[in-house]
Predict the 3D structure of the following.
Amino acid sequence: KIYIFLLTETQMEVFSVAYSSKLNEQIEQLRQAVSSLPSDQELANNFEQYTKTAFTLYEQLLAPALKQLPTSVSSLILIPDYQLNHLPFELLLMNPPLSTKPNFSVKNLDYVLEHYTLSYDYSAIMHIKNRQRNSGSYRQGFVGLAPIFIGSTEEAEPVNCRATALKPLACNQQEVQTIQNLIGGQSLLGKQAHKNTFDLLLPSSQIVHLATHACIDENSLTDDKIFLADDYISKHDLFNSRTNAELVVLSACNTGSGQLLKGEGVMSLARGFIQAGSASCVLSRWSVDDCATAKIMEQFYRSLKEEVGRSEALRLSKLSYLQSAEKYYQHPFFWGAFTTYGQTTPLKVWRSGLPPWLLPSLGALVILLLWSVWKFRFSRPTH
C-alpha cells in the first residue's frame, strides 16, 4: 500500500492506494525523460515516455488526494517518503496530451504546475519547526556569488566530485548582476566569490544566491560539493554552519540530489542549508542549462520583489519561461528542475544601506536648515 496523509486547516484524512511494483521504475523513467535533452531522433520516444509516465503517476499518487480537496485550495506542501523524493510532482500531467506529436507547451500538456503552487519539505517536524522560526537580523540583504571557471568547454562534468577543471558558465555572472540591479545588495563575481567571503556573509545575509557548479555523488554522504572561486562548500561544512537566511538559492546542477536514506530522505546540499538555519531553499533536481536558468531566476526575483510567495514566485517564473520559449526550449529539461523547500510566505526583501525614503528626507532637511540659517543671518536687527 501507499499511504497518503491529507491535511488542511479543517480536514485530516488518511487513506491508501494500491502499490504498483513498477512505481520505482516509473519514477526513474520520468526522471530520465526530463533530466536530459533528447536528440531529434529520440524526441518522439522521449515525449511518449514522459507523457505516459507523468499521467500514470498523477492518477496513482496525486489524483486520489486532490479529489478530496476543496476547489479553493491552490497551494500544496508535499512531504514525500523515500523514492518519492525524486519525483517532480509539478511536472505530472492531469490529463493525457491533446496531441501525440512532441509538443511540451501548455496548450498541449496539462501540467500540475498550471493549477497548483507546490513546495516541499523533508519531514513534518522540520516543517513545523521552520514555521515557528523567528526571522533573524541582517547586515546584508541580497548576496550573489558567481565564480569564473576556466576549464574545458567540453560537455564532460566533474567525475565523482573530484575533477579540478570545471567548464565556464556563460550566464552565471549576468544572472547575479541582473538580480542585484533588481533588488540591491551585493554581487561577488569571479575571484571575489571565494570561500572566506561566503563564510563571513552567510550568517548575516537575508538572501544568499549561488550561481555556480555543483557536483553530487548519490552513493556518498560526504562527496557533494558546490564550488566557489578558490574552494568548495561541502555538506560537512554546512552541517557545521549557522545562518539566519530567509532564502538560499542554489542556482547550480543537482543541488537537490544526494544519497537517499530510508526514513530520512535525500541528504542534499539544499538540506544542508536548511539544517544550518535557512528558512527556505530553491534547489535543482538535475543538471540545468546555465542561460535558461538565468532567465528563470530573473523572473523569480521580479515576483519576489512584488512580495509574491516564494513557491508562487518560482511557479510564475517557470510558466512565464514556458509560455515565451521557442518550441525547442519548452522541454521540461530547461525549466522544470527548480523547486522550493521550506517556508513559502512572501519575502520582504531587505535592502542594505539607507532606506530609499531617507535620501529625499535628508535633502529636504538640509534645505530647511540652510534656509533657517539664511533667514537668521539676514533678519537680525543691525546697530
User: Anything to note?
Assistant: The CA atoms of residues 33 and 46 lie 6 Å apart. The two ends are 102 Å apart (CA to CA). The mean pLDDT is 88.
